[in-house]
TrEMBL record:
UniProt entry tagged with the keyword Hydrolase: yes
Reactions that this protein is recorded to catalyse: Couples ATP hydrolysis with the unwinding of duplex DNA by translocating in the 3'-5' direction; ATP + H2O = ADP + phosphate + H(+)
InterPro entries named in the record: DExx_box_DNA_helicase_dom_sf, DNA_helicase_UvrD-like_C, DNA_helicase_UvrD/REP, P-loop_NTPase, UvrD-like_ATP-bd
GO terms of molecular function: 3'-5' DNA helicase activity; ATP binding; ATP hydrolysis activity; DNA binding
Family per record: Belongs to the helicase family. UvrD subfamily.
Physiological role: Has both ATPase and helicase activities. Unwinds DNA duplexes with 3' to 5' polarity with respect to the bound strand and initiates unwinding most effectively when a single-stranded region is present. Involved in the post-incision events of nucleotide excision repair and methyl-directed mismatch repair.
Keyword Cytoplasm: no
Provenance organism: Marivita hallyeonensis
GO cellular component entries: cytosol; DNA helicase complex
Pfam families the UniProt entry points to: PcrA_UvrD_tudor, UvrD-helicase, UvrD_C
Protein name (Swiss-Prot/TrEMBL): DNA 3'-5' helicase
Record keywords: ATP-binding, DNA-binding, Helicase, Hydrolase, Isomerase, Nucleotide-binding
PANTHER family: ATP-DEPENDENT DNA HELICASE SRS2, UVRD / RECB / PCRA DNA HELICASE FAMILY MEMBER
Residues forming coiled coils: none
Amino acid sequence: MAARPQPYLDDLNPAQREAVELLDGPILMLAGAGTGKTKALTTRIVHLLNTGRARQNEILAVTFTNKAAREMKERVGRLLGQTVEGMPWLGTFHSICVKLLRRHAELAGLKSNFTILDTDDQLRLLKQLVQAAGIDDKRWPARQLSGIIDNWKNRAITPDKVPAADAGAFNHEGPKLYAQYQARLKELNAVDFGDLLLHMVTIFQAHPDVLDQYQRWFKYILVDEYQDTNVAQYLWLRLLAGGHKNICCVGDDDQSIYGWRGAEVGNILRFEKDFEGAHVVRLEQNYRSTPHILAAASSVIRGNAARLGKELWTDKNEGEKVRLIGHWDGEEEARWIGEEIEAMQGGTRGMRGMSLDEMAILVRASHQMRAFEDRFLTIGLPYRVIGGPRFYERMEIRDAMAYFRLVVSPDDDLAFERIVNTPKRGLGDKAQQTIQTVARANGVSLVDGAALAVEQGLIKGKGATELKLLVENLARWSSMTKGQAIIEDSDELLDDGSQVLNTVRFGEPEVSHVELAQIVLDESGYTAMWQNDKTPEAPGRLENLKELVKALEEFDNLQGFLEHVSLIMDNDKGGDGEKVSIMTLHAAKGLEFPAVFLPGWEDGLFPSQRSMDESGLKGLEEERRLAYVGITRAEEICTISFAANRRVFGQWQSSLPSRFIDELDEAHVDVLTPPGLYGGGYGAAGMASPVTQAMAGSDLHEKAAEANVYNSPGWRRLQARSAERPLSQPRETRNTVIDASAISAYTLGERVFHQKFGYGAVVGIEGDKLEIEFEKAGVKKVVAKFICSADD
Ligand code: ATP
Ligand code: MG
């Protein structure tokens, strides 16, 4: 038989070709971003099929997301010139393990129709066990236990193998409760997410015959994004590849970003030890990004100590430098990006016109998305959110909105149903049914039905007390939306001849709708519910709630805000036209876009506060890898931005540009003049690096004029707004009148040092407080005892 043509090999460079054609034995492709690892992996599948080495269902190919799996299947199909129907074992670890476990459920003590529990079910179960053990679940919340158990499962630790070091977990009850939990799952014929891998590893270890069967069946194993595998996934792969050892893994240690979920970058580093005689292929040519983008990314990742280190090159044209722009605040950032995207569609600053599909905004934290979503809806810019619900569709946002809806309209039964037992008020299905029945019988809303049901003693115990409180609270919060009732005499005559005797109007409410929203979330116990929640998602949910309250500031009252959101949700149905993508940096792994926006590069946001507070550099290094992932998603245009101020709970907080900005090699960065930058106002934002300092430089106005910034609507708006800024803003603190006659150990102009803000010069003295213009942190008032002279 004549050999089939192999045109797909022509698209590869020699190193890739080697990785594709070397079909036998273990092989590791360890290479930087955009070097064609995924492309080589896909081509390898094609080559295996084309050369008849394996049939479609004999190849095990693991990707990180379902989206990646779909894309890989499509690409294989394209290269083969036929649709791929039979690749059942191309998918994520979880999707593949579900299939395997259904086949061998009985070996794990399950039936093949086992159910997969979601997080809620898992928690309910754990809570029952915690309570049954007589443990105070206020002090020891079930969520914490679930985090501990997930962690064990990620490390492939079964209840009988919990290491001595972990014996003290969850007040020393952790290991026992873990065992009980697993037993209970078995009784329920159920598994949780972590079990999928854990059970398969256990089955393979305990049943060599089963393992042997699959070792032979899967002739070739391929794994993308290997740097992000956890211990359980790693063991599972090693077991399966143990026979023929035809395993091909690709990854990049610089892109390991799931350490917080138990991923072990060490897996990739010890591949050569695990698989003797492993062939390591290094790819160095990057096909994705322009030289400037690549160099900027390299300059950041160089800051990490723990890395293998590799150099990338590209033969692409130089292209645009990475663009850096600072903004006055977060809203301005969103506004600017919206305008820039529209400009880029038409082709701006000598760039080609781009389609919205070619642009993406990659954020560090999901709560950042809200500002963009709101802005884009306002200007009618189509967008999609990838890898998670859009802001207003998130569970915690919907819950909070349900409370607000009830405050505005107590008849909103759907809202009531949503929150009546969230947080838990001891109102089970039966109690809720009673409320429904009473409401229907009396033709009243559920809120009123609830009040009646309590009054008539149809609901008892803790549930009744809590329900009564909820109903009373709702009424009280509602009344707070209005001010005092003012009754005025009237002699107005109506058209029908009747006379109005008096009118009631309401004065200004005593609390603003923003404060009220916070009160509702706090007094209802909703905030506390997430504060007590120990799952990894909880901090994110609290951030989103803060973001929600912040969003309210842009509206006059709750009602206006709720209308806005319902319009947004209605708008949601958008068709399949071009759209800008918005997603987190984590979700962007493996993807690429011609134009990428990276907003919010501020210390505390990116790198995250948590990583900065942590002792040691582990967290910070993971954040830096995330920065590297972000920049390397861009093909042609990469725009990094930061805001000098972000509003948190109606308070302006000034923030410092991210330390990662300082690390960017300025030779590859172009500083764009922000529309609102004039008169050195950004000094307050702190100018640390040469790059950020350039923004305050003397050629600033020239640059701005060149870019025609002074004529932009954004500039004009910002100038107008800056005139009406309240005094609380950093810019004004510069002008505070200081009584310099007060006795102080410091003199005006003296150079001083502060633990947190670094070096600065004293610009004002007021009793024991000094006003200092810090070199990095801008002007701040600090207590003198926290300061020392820079000469000390
Ligand atoms: P990441 O680390 O971000 O996952 P990667 O190493 O998997 O990146 P790919 O996504 O496979 O990189 O490839 C990056 C881009 O380069 C893709 O658009 C791909 O089509 C292109 N590419 C890869 N190899 C070649 C090649 N030999 N010739 C031309 N283009 C290539
Ligand atoms: Mg890839």
